[in-house]
Amino acid sequence: MPIHGIGIDIVHVSRIASLVRRRNVDTLARRILSSEEQATFSHIHEEGTETRKTRFLAVRWAVKEAAYKALFPVKPTWKELTYSSATKGGKPTLFYTPQNNFASRNLHVSVSHDGEYVVASVVAELH
């Protein structure tokens, strides 16, 4: 299938931590997470929860920013994009569920994090 676009983004986790301090972690989560992501986010209940929640938000921020770049000139909202990390040998997934009738795209996503940085890349294919 032809490629519609490619996007990449890098996030310094301390930038998201700063947003969390200013806005509250749950407020920021409600602003940027889809309902599926919010359900996963609400189940983060371990030691170091604040750090894990901040990293969770940083990953979604980077993925969604990369998706915006890959989908341009289409402008999805934060909540129309849903990222799910790889689990049990699967690969990470990114779904775009537009509220209008815009044709969907196949999205391929890759995420890497090391220390204080999260990098995401997205390739959008045309159907």
From TrEMBL:
GO terms for biological process: fatty acid biosynthetic process. One of its GO terms (molecular function) is magnesium ion binding. The keyword Magnesium applies. It comes from the Eukaryota. Residues 5-120 form the 4'-phosphopantetheinyl transferase domain. Keywords: Fatty acid biosynthesis, Fatty acid metabolism, Lipid biosynthesis, Lipid metabolism, Magnesium, Metal-binding, Transferase. NCBIfam families: acpS, pantethn_trn. This is 4'-phosphopantetheinyl transferase. It comes from Coniophora puteana (strain RWD-64-598).
